[in-house]
Structure formats: structure tokens, C-alpha cells
Amino acid sequence: MALLASGLVTVVLGQVRDHLWPVVKATYPLKGDYPLPKWAYAVEEGFLTTGGDRLPTDICTSPTREFEDCLAGHDVALNYVDYHPASHYWPLQLVETGILLALAALAVFAAFRVLRRLHG
Predict the structure, then answer these.
(1) What DSSP element (H or E) covers 80?
(2) Which residue, 43, 17, 39, is CA-closest to 85?
């Protein structure tokens, strides 16, 4: 049971880890350099239209010339990337640690309730 609970917590935290702290948003030109600083962790990237809508990176997957026509057809203006810079490492660790400590306290509380009920 403990192995199942540990596995569940690991999977759930792995899914929500990127959203525990606000990401930094960066945009850059279609043919520009990728703006990630050293040690940054990219969470999401794609294209921005002139209206500000986000499109996934796989919206256009054809060869070079057709790729540019596809981007123009979708009214793409910029690339974007959402990322966590290296300075977010410790805040993310502290938030995740707080979640794990709260879950551990809940498990201890539940165990004492069960033991009190069983052993009087």
C-alpha cells in the first residue's frame, strides 16, 4: 500500500511540478535565437499569432518553404517559450517539500486515528 501511495504521489507531483511556481514568458522572432538563459528549464513553447493566440510547435510540420507558408497562413508573428530560470529552483523545491510534508502529516494523523480506534 505504501509503495502504491508513493508511486501515486510521485506521478501526480511530476505532472504538476511545472505549475507550482509562475513561469517566465519570453518571445522572440521566428528566425531569432532561442532566448533561454543557461540552466533554464523550458515548460512550454510554440508560436504566437498577431492576435496573441498560442499555437503548438507542431502546427506546421512540412519542409522549409511550405513551413513558412503554413506559418503565414496561421498568422504567426513570434515564437514564445515559458520557462523556469535557475533562480526558481529553490522556491519550487520548497513548495514541493511543503506539499510532501503536508501529505506526511495527513498520513500520520490518519494512522493515529486508526490505531486509536483499533486499540482503544
Answers:
(1) strand 76-84
(2) 39
List the one residue out of 50, 42, 47, 78 whose CA is nearest residue 61.
47
- How many Cα atoms sit within 13 Å of 27 on the Cβ side? 11
Residues paired with 102 in a beta bridge: none
pTM of the model: 0.79
Look up residue 33 and give its amino acid: D
User: First CA to last CA across the chain, in angstroms?
Assistant: 24
Phi, psi of 41 (to 5 degrees): -120, 110
CA 7/CA 16 separation, integer angstroms: 15
As averages over each run of 10 residues, the pLDDT of the chain (120 residues) reads 89 92 93 87 93 90 77 91 95 96 95 88
Strand order through the sheet with 24-29: 24-29, 76-84, 41-49, 54-56
